[in-house]
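Backbone shape codes:
===
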Amino acid sequence: MTAEMQSFYTPSTSTHISHAPTAVDELINKYSSTMASTSTSRSQRRNPFQRFFDRVRLEYYRYEVTFGLYVMTPSEKLVANAFVIVVLSLLFWALLLYFPPLLYQKISRLVWLLTGHSGQEVGTVLGILDKHGNPLPALVAENALTP
């Protein structure tokens, strides 16, 4: 009598009952790293759009399982997903709003370190300051110099 050892990573010879939807089981079987041979995947060539949408569904399933949305009701999922979308959109908006001036400031400091001239002088010579610069510091500097 020999005991059969089985790893978590090898497919089971016995049938198991899955509690996941059939579409999820299909996706897991399709993208599983334990496929027996590549000849089965070649015979099942799919449309690139179908593969893309299958991949998106698989990633959404992984997101649900990882962050616990899998056990929530549809209304709770809606609230949680809305929260995630709002936070990500605010981060993206802040990135678009605040990153370009920060990048310009850091580049002007790098120019000063490399050349010894201020970034405003170099920006004025190159014409960059007229397009992307902030005119407020120039007005403050002019008012400070005049008595």
The mean pLDDT is 75. Residues 9 and 34 are 7 Å apart (CA to CA).
